[in-house]
Amino acid sequence: MVLLDDLTQRLQIDDPEERRTISNVSWSQYEALLSDLGDMAHYRVTYLDGVLEIVSPSRRHESGKTQIGTLLEIYFLETDTEYFPTGSTTLRKEAQQAGTEPDEGYCIGTDKEFPDLAIEVVVTSGGINRLELYRRLGVREVWFWQNNQFSIYHLREEVPIQFAQTFGYEAIDHSEVLPNLDMNLLAVCVRNPNPLAAAKEFRQGVCHKKSSWVYPTTQTT
After folding, report:
1. How far apart are alpha carbons 1 and 166 in whole angstroms?
2. Does residue 118 contact residue 139 with C-beta atoms inside 8 Å?
3. Could you say which residues form the signal peptide (predicted)?
4. I want to staple 44 with a disulfide (CB 3.0 to 4.6 A). Which of 55, 74, 84, 90 is the partner?
5. For the segment 186-211, what is each residue's pLDDT rounded down to a tens digit?
6. Which fold has domain 59-212?
7. What is the spatial distance between Cα 211 and Cα 36, in angstroms, rounded to a whole number?
8. pLDDT tens string 75-95
9. What is the pTM (predicted TM-score) of this model?
10. Burial 7-37 (b: 16+ CB within 10 A, else e)
11. What secondary structure letter does DSSP report for 72?
């Protein structure tokens, strides 16, 4: 097992998307590593049942997450949707032995301890199962951006039975957290390599459609 005391010194990552996984890590060691890393955005740390995963995001990864975040903020503004961004804030529950830092996170309607929506940009597959992780954290909906498309999962069961293979989440075509959002339009604009052109196209599309939308009511829980 890699000793965590000098882990930050030993992480000399050549591949910008290299993933390191360490087993048999205690919760106290996980928290100590988070404290040691501080605000170093270069590393993303995930923990589940004693398994620690550290990823150094690539430029492609960071570009994708930023593009998605920019477009969603345009959507919130144009539709007058109350939102509270959580960004890559560390989400953790010791009792559930789970902790992670999503690429983007949002509370909708009211601010909450854990976001209603978590977004993951997947450049390299494998590692800790994110749906199991987010189920334990009680995140209602999870989006994965992978291979230039979105996969959307909505939490149905706290104890997975019917949706055991997807850890209590159901795969859906359209967001239930943001039901009026055109996910196809969002995906097209995220794929656009020109951020300014993408933002203009998305804003125009949102403005064109919003007159026929039914807006969600403000949540109180």
Report:
1. 30
2. yes
3. none
4. 55
5. 999 999 999 999 999 999 999 988 77
6. tt1808, chain A (3.90.1570)
7. 49
8. 999 999 999 999 889 999 999
9. 0.86
10. beeeeeeeeeeebbebeebeeebbeebbeeb
11. H
